[in-house]
């Protein structure tokens, strides 16, 4: 699995995360009639709205200076072998594969990310580490 903290780019990551959330919502703006939007998720929920993500991240700045990083974009890319393994586990059903990947990201990967960020234990607050496929 390839995991990389992305460069925040021109918008930076010291202000609002609304630009990044808006960018990650681009697929939801091009839905065909009747198609359901892809919601944000984490270990506790599968139905986090973009506005909840923005509100939580933008208001979670206690003790941070005005120029401190307030959020990070982390790219998580499974290898072809990992995707093949998921395909075998789920019988190749796309929705089951997506669910299994979301479960792995929200529980295993984000727990390790939290430890690396200096936090301890499992994240219980469902808005701490929102993710998007």
Physical arrangement of strands within the biggest beta sheet: 1-2
Number of helical segments with 4 or more residues: 4
- Whole-number average pLDDT? 84
The end-to-end distance, rounded to whole angstroms, is 15 Å
User: What share of residues are in beta strands?
Assistant: 5-15%
For the biggest sheet, the summary is: 2 strands, antiparallel
Tell me about this structure.
With 133 residues, the protein is mainly alpha-helical. It is 38% helix and 6% strand. Helix 3 packs across helix 4. The radius of gyration is 16 Å and the shape is globular.
In short:
The chain is mainly α and 133 residues long. 38% of the residues lie in helices and 6% in strands.
Provide keyphrases for this structure.
single chain; 133 residues; mainly alpha; two-stranded antiparallel ribbon; 2 strands; 6% strand; globular
Write the layout of secondary structure elements.
Layout: E1 2-5, H1 18-24, H2 50-59, E2 74-77, H3 80-90, H4 94-116
Antiparallel strand pairs: 1-2
């Amino acid at each position: 699995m390839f995991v990389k903290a992305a460069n925040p780019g021109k918008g930076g990551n010291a202000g609002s995360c609304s630009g990044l959330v808006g960018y990650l919502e681009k697929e939801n703006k091009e839905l065909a009639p009747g198609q359901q939007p892809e919601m944000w998720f984490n270990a506790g929920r599968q139905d986090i709205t973009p506005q909840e993500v923005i509100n939580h991240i933008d208001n979670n700045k206690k003790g941070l200076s005005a120029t401190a990083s307030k959020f990070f974009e982390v790219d998580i890319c499974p290898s072809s072998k990992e995707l093949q393994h998921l395909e075998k586990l789920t019988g190749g059903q796309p929705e089951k594969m997506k669910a299994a990947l979301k479960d792995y990201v929200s529980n295993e990967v984000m727990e390790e990310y939290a430890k690396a960020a200096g936090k301890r234990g499992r994240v219980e607050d469902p808005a701490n580490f929102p993710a998007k496929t």
